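#help-structures

NK: newbie question. if I give both the sequence and a SMILES, will the prediction place the ligand too? trying with zinc ion
OV: yes, paste both and it writes out the complex. here, I ran yours:
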Amino acid sequence: MKKLVWHILLCVALAASAWASNKVDAEQVAKEHKASFHWFPVQKTFLLAGESDTLKFAIGLPYVSSHGNSIELKHAPEITDGHILLDSADVASLYKTDKVQTTPVAPASSSSAVKVSSSSVKTTDVPAKVAAVPAAAQPITTVATKPKNETAGTREVKTIVIDPGHGGKDTGAQGKNSNEKDIVLAVGKLLKKELEKEGFNVKMTRDKDVFIELGERANLANQWDGDLFISLHCNAIDATPERKKQIKGYHVYVLRAPESEEDKAIARRENKVATLYGEKNAKEELSPIEWFKLEARLEKYKQNSYMFTEEMLKAFDGGKIKRQGGGVGGAGFMVLVGALMPAVLFEIGFISNPEEEAYMTTTKAQEDIAARVAKAVSTYKAAVHNYRETLNAR
Ligand SMILES: [Zn+2]
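OV: that's the protein plus ligand as structure tokens.
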């Protein structure tokens, strides 16, 4: 028995020393492979952005995201003495894969690349040897709903899904005289009218004061085959009256790993309803591993989500409610997680700010806000369709 224990200890020590001797500095790797190195201290992730691919790593996670797929690594990247270290075997395998790959894997450029079925290999469930398989052969999602085949950025814009946040027993954030659920429903209904005038097919996850689970909202959007998902909310902070007066403005969010504690906090607040009412798979925050898997899957919608965000900023220029900070942020909003389409969460303004609350409860303001969102949808559609034509003309 004692012998066995020693044997195990020896093996562990050997394994540890083997890993110790095979570490390479990630910044050095970037230099050698003519890639640029980017470090994101809040998320503890880093990128090696090369010509043909951007590899995304996270400290402590044995996965790398490449060409929109996540691949298992032999060892998770780690930080030692201020250096970010990778396993040299992982590096060799990743860069060999990169060279061997003769056909570039453009996101969803061929229909086979985006086909997702329930039988798809769950990359991250397969042990170690996965790292040797080319990235292109690794579909990550196992979602049953089949996403639309599309080249990134060219999805036709026909069906718009409006998601007025909260509802029923879930009031959302509360102001002095109003509830978030009522303001966003009013804006949502007006937005529907505006968009229908423009010829869009419009669906609403709720058009009355009812409670719908966060996960169900994205499911509905997928069933309707939406081309754009807009979740409407009002922001709020819990602070002194003085501070409440200061904090105001609108914010457009996309589903992305948060880059600030503030953005994280907003997602937690919006996600709270799921945990509060016992929704299945409810959580306030995504784990680093979930982020990693999710980001790979979201890759093909990202470009469009950002395009729409840009149009939102333009449309709200000159509006009564100004941008809060840059006006754009990213965080883990559960309501956006399951949507297989470009999606944003729009915090119209702060219900905790007396001035903005008073404004948002007027019909005139709600009409103006709806008209601006509708304008953003129209200009977004024009931009996307323009891009389609440019591609076709090539
Ligand atoms: Zn909300």
